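Our consortium's second objective concerns turning raw sequence data into structural hypotheses that experimental partners can test. To show how far this objective has progressed, the report includes one record in full. It was chosen at random from the queue rather than selected for favorable results. The single chain below, 481 residues long, was entered without modification.
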Amino acid sequence: MRVFTAGLGAETNTFSGLYIGLDEFRDGFLFEPYTHPPELTEVSAPLFVLREKRQRCGWEVIEGTYAFALPGGRVGSWTYELLRERILSELRVALPVDFVALSMHGATAAVGCDDCEGDLLGRIRQIVGRHVPVGVEIDPHAHLSAAMTANADIIVAMREYPHTDFLARGRELIDLLERAAKGSIRPVTAVHDCRLIGRFHTVREPMRGFVDRMQHLLEETPQLLSLSFVHGFPWGDTADMGAKMLAIANEDLALAERTASALGREVEAMRERTFLPPIGVAAALDLALRAGAWPVVIADVGDNPGGGAGGDSTTLLRALLERDVDACLGPLWDPVAVRMMLAAGVGARVAVRLGGKVGPASGLPLDAEAEILAIDPAAYQTWSGTRMRLGAACAVRIGKVRLVIASIRDQAYGPDLFTNLGIELHDLSIVAVKSAQHFMAGFAPIARTVLLAGGGGPLETDFRRVPYRNIQRPKWPLDAI
């Protein structure tokens, strides 16, 4: 097999002013052909699987650019067009190929282009023609557009939220593309629009059972090739936003349509039970302090960088300081403060203004005296077998609160966010993390209780209050359906 692979994506919060340029891709995952790291990452599973195939089966794998930025606002038009044309040029040079395997987010929007995935897939299809299978692995928080399904033979979305199954879905994608290239399957795709905006945590019911039923249905129905529930990204105000069910069958379009419709209607029926809304910061702290067993993990859902927020709101930090409670919080994004801490050094006490820099939704900055506990010029945290970079970072103490401040904006994934910088969690009452769901895999095992706190950042979870302008209506819960 002769295969081309590339990747491009950024989860775009169209309400965010944190525009994404090349520097943001460099902070995330930007590698030119044959310079990609050997380690598996969430965004490079197709490449990882193809490298395995090259080693075991002798496949010829032509590696293109992989470019992923952390969630934020729109990608700059110049940046998107530069990366897009780079990938297209690499593909032209690689021809002929047996198939094209891509990694994309699915909810990437640039200035002037609301559907970057559909745009790129359409251009790839023009280059390779209809006879070459094209497939893509996407995040479930994608906008599944008609342009995507028209130009990709195989679309595989991760099923888990947190997205811990990216390698399994990458293997599924490459397997199906190989079979399609050899002519042993002829994939056909059907999509059911659930007409709703929601959040779908798969670690609890009813979504846990739904994901398991999808897998059982695949195992019991040989003509079904792949099933993906695409959650949609609620803070992407584009025409294609919303939850959709995708089914791929071997030649049998009627089977794909029946399956997508049946599963999609299951989602519609349980829509009000799929998400546990956050409570206010004050109420979360009241519950945590009455828990009687610690640590209690509080997720700062409203300021989750994984949803495109700044990660620099000090609302929860202020509340912890006011309660005078032994706690830690992280990661707070403030590269200016980190630079000051690096200059001052471990053990210094510095007067610093923290957070509140991105915009009005970040709230006010916090002026405080901080004791520098630890510094790491190349900090990281781990998640599902991968390393997530924090850039230069430091641990500081303000009152009874230990705080991790990072120069790369990202959400909390695992406890080593804190322990790598010397903050032990077992003797703390509260562990506060800037995340909405991905933290669960790492922090739930150490938590006596997990609480979701809202109201301290820009990610509104009452979708009736989000000022949508471009989404297709009607859509629940904005409309009665």
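The partners drew two points from this record. The chain has two domains: 2-273, 279-461. DSSP finds 13 helices and 18 strands in the chain. Both points have been shared with the crystallography group to help prioritize constructs.
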